[in-house]
Write a structure and sequence with these properties.
- The protein is mainly α.
- 72% of the residues lie in helices and 1% in strands.
- The protein contains 59 helices and two strands.
- A two-stranded antiparallel ribbon has the order 1-2.
- The relative contact order is 0.03.
Amino acid sequence: MSTQILGSILERIVSKDKDHRYMAVSDLQSELRKPEFRTDDSTERRLCKAVLQQLDESSGDISGLAIKCLGLLACRLQKDNVETLLQDLCTKLSTGKEHQRDLASIGLKTVVADVPGPPLATTVVKSITPHLIAGIRKQEDADVASMSLDITNDLVSKFGNQMPGDLAAVAEAVIPQLDSSKSSIRKRAIHCLGAVAAYLPEDVLDRLAEHLLNRLATQGLKFESAQTYMHCLGAVSRSVSWRFGRYLDTAVPLAVQYCQGAEEGQDELQEYCLQALEAFTLQCPAAARAHFTTIFPLALECLRYDPNYTEDMEQSGSEEEDADELTDEDYSDDEDASWKVRRAAAKLVAGVIVSQPELLPTIYPQASQALVARFREREENVKADIFSAFVDLVHMVGSHAGRSDAGNAAGAQLRSDAGSILKAAARQLREKSPKTRSGIFLALRELVLVLPECCTAETMSLLLPAILQSLTDKASGSAALKLQTLQFLQLALKCGRAPAWQPHMAQLLPPLLACARERYYKVSAEALRMCTAAVPVLRPRPPAPLDPALQAMVPGLLSVVEEKLAAQDQDQEVKEAAINCAGSTIAYLGDVKPSTTSTLVQMLVARLRNDITRLTAVKALESVATAPVPVPLGPVLQPVLTHLTSFLRKANRPLRQASLSSIDALMTRHGDAAGQQQVQGLVEEVVALISDADLVVAAMSLHLCCTLLQRHPACASDLSASALPPSMALLQSQLLQGAALQELQAFLVGLLQSSAISFDQLLSSLLTAGQMPATGKTAQHATAQCIASLCAAAGYERTMATVTSLLSSLEGSQHQGEAAQRLALLTVGEVGRTADLSAFPPLKGALTRALSSSSEDIKGCASLALGAVCIGNLTAYLPFLLQAIQDQAAVPKDQYLLLKALNEALVSLSAQPPGGTTLGVQDQQQVLALLLQASETGEEECANVVAECLGHLALLAPANVLPILQENAASQSAARRAVIVFAVKFMVVDKPHPIDGLLHEAMAGFLSRLTDADWHVRRAAVQALSAAAHNKAELIADMVQGALPALYAQTVVDQSLVRMVDLGPFKLKVDDGLELRKSAFEAMDVLLDTCRSRLAIDAFLQPLRDGLKDHYDVKMPCHLLLGKLAAVAPAHVMGALEDLIPPLTATLTARPKADAVKQEVDRNEDMLRSCLRAIEAVARIPNVDTCAPFTTLMTSTVLQGNLQPKYAAIKAERAEADGLDATAAEW
């Protein structure tokens, strides 16, 4: 800032002209906002003096600007001048006149608000805290005390973690103000104590809580004092969160006592009691669970509290009550404050529902009955909270249904209550209040989401009058109601069936169309979406004729769609909704009014030219192209294809994908009308997309090529010439798999069938691509699958000739490179999956020799090939394979390859559809006996393969195999027990399977091996538990609680598994239990995802404390587990956080040795990032800054040095994933 400008400001700020002074202060404010503002010490003092003088200005405009300058000025001054400025403000606050005190108070609050943080915050805290404490203690001047309390509240709320030495003094000064005669001071003291309590150390918090509880326990405490102290108790509980749990045994009975003992007119005391109980329940769920039987009945009782209405409202289910509905006009007593009690009770009920999900079977029947009965509440504010509590209850039932027996029981109760709930909702929908009706529609939406089967014809008949009334409401502010109604309708339409809706469409469609024409864009867009959903209801089975009663409504619908589609001044949301509605309408009703349909199609084509609506229009045209009714697209086919083809060059990936899908649909249905030149241009664009840069787009492009071969055979030669080279390049990619590989196989078969290229040419191209030195094993396997597909399409003779050629190349392997041998083996195997190769006697010898190769890669390919050819002829090859396994029993390395071959065969057989190839009973017994014998080899690699074989064998013959495995799970051999228990992992598949019922009965026996004497068996049991929880949690849901203690025991370091290995110059410490502990924590992670309702989180956290101190490989899953727990059980994590901080700190401060190799450095970096991710998840817990050790960890470690940029990067990643602002939160 230039001296000249500053001098001018200082000169004008003391001018006698008020306008000059105003402009000077305004200019100063502008200059202070500039980052480059700098000046000397003398000028700073002059500025402070000048700004403080303006606080005495009689003009409110000038003094207001001066106050704004104070905060900016404090951030620019040197420390001494900041202290002087704050000293002057505090002096004005304590000794100044009334006007000066008010402005000084506002000025101090402005400074506190504008100061960003340390080190300036430390200066502010030290400068003003003593003055504020003195001001709070000024009993003789209530205004100063009130202002000081306000400023202290702001100061502590923002900088409480930086004033540990002052908090006790602040609390001691504020506590006496709770007994002030002025209610305004008492309220400010409550807020201030709530802010202070969050940062109090344990001993001071104990004294504060003891004082509050002792005062409440005092006999004959005045009403005002009881109200104040109960209000303060709730505020402190909300502030300190889980730390208040240790006081609940005293606090809950006192709150209940005062609530039940309140006299007439003491409604606010009851309200504060209920609010305090709500805070206890939400902030300390574990401790509050012991008081559930006291808190919940009280909440339900207070929910019915209405002294001005003496009838029993809960017994109101009959139709006779409809005529006697209570309305707001029946009660005109403005003195009635009982609604506050009912509102607080509704919030308490919601708090219990949310915080105690494990008590759902007990909560649901009582809460549901009480809440539904109170739908008839006469106060709108209370109704909103009742509806919100009901939504929480239904959502909790839905989130736990299917995950636990408790959830299933509550779901069954909800299903049986649906009828009475809907009747109560229908009565409320006849209310005049839009707010009430909006709340009911929110509750109904949640009910339909959880219980979609409630959308029956009877339900729609019951709700339809109210729905029509809401859609046609003309009152001001009805837009929100219409939105809620339309959103409910759309959801109900998706969940219900067309027959339930069809009888009502004649009444429903006119108001929907009227809503679509509304000017408010949100209502219009939602109505158009509703029309889109309604079209399939009008004609559920096209091209069957439309119901004559509904046909008359189609012109009106088409007219609205045309009107909205033609309008250019619409909001983007309305445009997209209109385009989607047009696509659906044309697809289902395009033959009802062909002239309008043609116009709508032309409009959709026009929308392709607009960048904003392009993507939506492409998707709509795909709907038209796949329409179940005939829609003539001949006139627009050429321009549409031209546009869509040009979109394939765009960088917009969703647009490319949508364009490919739409072109495919158009060519499938209308490809005959496309011109040859246009198809050639399309081929050029599609071929350019066949690469591994985007496998999804590549798969879609290859599928389109197949469609072109079918619909335009004339383009086969062009495709052969232009698409085959990139297809061969794609085939050599290590990324090729899944849908892209399947489409590539289909394309090659399509080329073969089109006669554009011969089988020999295709085979030569594939062999050349597969035998190139740069082609990896994954690419060779894909090549082998493509050759097998070609052989299957070419017929028996070609297949035999190809196999003969491949066997010849294997016979002369000394002249072949390794890549050629691998490809030949893999191809023989893939061909043998579907073709019987028993006609080639040399095949067994060739595969046997390959298994003895010096190359490990060739051995692996031979093993895969041997297993695959077994599928083509089990009779010929399975006995040969089993005998070979038996012969190699003494050579585990060779037996391993043969077991891999057997596993390949069993995996393929278990994946066969019903009626496919399977093993006979004799073969099953032979294989099972062989595998049981092989399970005792003691080699870990062989054991793992044997376990996988046993698992897939059990899938093939559950009734025959599983009982034998159960018997052998108790074998004397630990190796056999481990293999059989590990096999369970492969029996649990993610889809329904006949083994599920038998496996459920057997799981208890397998899980009992968690306490086996051998650690190998225990690790196998842990992995089996993890697989079952991940794939089919219902198999083990009722066994989880019994298995958890044994699982937790596996997370503890077992010193008997730690041994020292003498390596000569040095000794190495080996921990055999490391993998077991790692597996146990991974299993806990899976259980948290799938069986959370079965877990006691407090006990679940115990092993985590030790895991965070363990080895690197154990810490990583523990960090992930902590991050998840912070999201799903924040209150429990807060309760254990102080114990978790030391191991987290140790991990962050650990450094690799000076001579550490790069691998160790990289591992340490990975562990740091993992730990920081867990800390970032914990930092998002509400009120986590009230935990002093965590605050210290953040300020002194995480946000310092090299960790700060790492943490910032993790925050940015999280924000990007969640679509949030990474700088929104302090941490």
